Amino acid sequence: MPEAPPDSSPTLRVETVDVTYGRALSALRSVSLTVPPATVVALLGANGAGKTTLLRAVSGTLRLHRGAITAGTIRYGDTVLDGGDPVAAVRAGVVQVPEGRRVFAGLSVDENLRSGGLGLSRRTRTAQIQESRDRVFTLFPRLAERTHQAAGLLSGGEQQMLAIGRALMAAPRLLLLDEPSLGLAPQMVQRIAEVIREINAQGTAVLLVEQNAGMALSLADHAHVLEVGETRLEGPAGELARTDAVRRLYLGESAEDQGAA
Ligand SMILES: Nc1ncnc2c1ncn2[C@@H]1O[C@H](COP(=O)(O)OP(=O)(O)OP(=O)(O)O)[C@@H](O)[C@H]1O
Ligand SMILES: [Mg+2]
């Protein structure tokens, strides 16, 4: 029987998911979230809220961290994502950029980029790698000037660009970004925001984890706030940015600011 063609514009559906680490540590409880094609969804929350855990569950890297989905389902179009199969996630078009821009410091920029294409099937790999490299170098001209440089010698901002570029090599339809602005100077944060906007404008959906709520809400269509493993708030990004709780807790405004506004 011929294979059914893959769903060309899948939606990510996380439905009432529980995640546990080891035997007992409950990290997410009944979390639901939807990322429609070509949208940006922001995931906010304090340290330890479960943001990274949710990305791991979607990208299939949860099992590497001894975590498991213990209730609920995650689907990307017709593909069921069970938290334990990163290759299946990449083949479905879902790619994560991990927290802390972990590039291979000893490898060159070019080698790092090529490693991002390894999850692709053999059939599509060669052509895809060429096309994706062109896309990455157009987005990040600075990387194009440094293809032979060891990644460990790049600045923090350049390493974040490389980490994003490496993920783009797999031609994702859904990009999972874990705190891309962390530790970067304001100008570089601005640049990363522009890049995310551009990647999205090219048709890639983005699930964006950020502690920089202002940046995330300015990019996102929809946003969720996690609090110790549960959804505290969700809604259109513009509406959430106007709620008192978000302004006070995540946008750094005091009660007096709000009184004055
Ligand atoms: N590999 C692991 N084993 C056990 N517990 C873990 C593991 N990874 C995370 N946790 C726990 O799960 C909870 C959620 O952690 P997670 O890393 O998802 O939070 P986060 O929202 O990404 O936080 P941060 O903003 O600090 O990155 C925390 O209580 C954390 O200690
Ligand atoms: Mg995290």
From TrEMBL:
Keyword Nucleotide-binding: yes
Keywords from the UniProt entry: Amino-acid transport, ATP-binding, Nucleotide-binding, Transport
Pfam families the UniProt entry points to: ABC_tran
KW Nucleotide-binding (keyword) present: yes
Source domain of life: Bacteria
UniProt cross-references to CDD domains, sorted A to Z: ABC_TM1139_LivF_branched
Gene3D superfamilies: P-loop containing nucleotide triphosphate hydrolases
SMART domains the record matches: AAA (SM00382)
Residue ranges annotated for the ABC transporter domain, each copy included: 12-253
One MF annotation (Gene Ontology) recorded for this entry: ATP binding
Family: Belongs to the ABC transporter superfamily.
Protein name: ABC transporter ATP-binding protein
Source lineage: Bacteria, Bacillati, Actinomycetota, Actinomycetes, Kitasatosporales
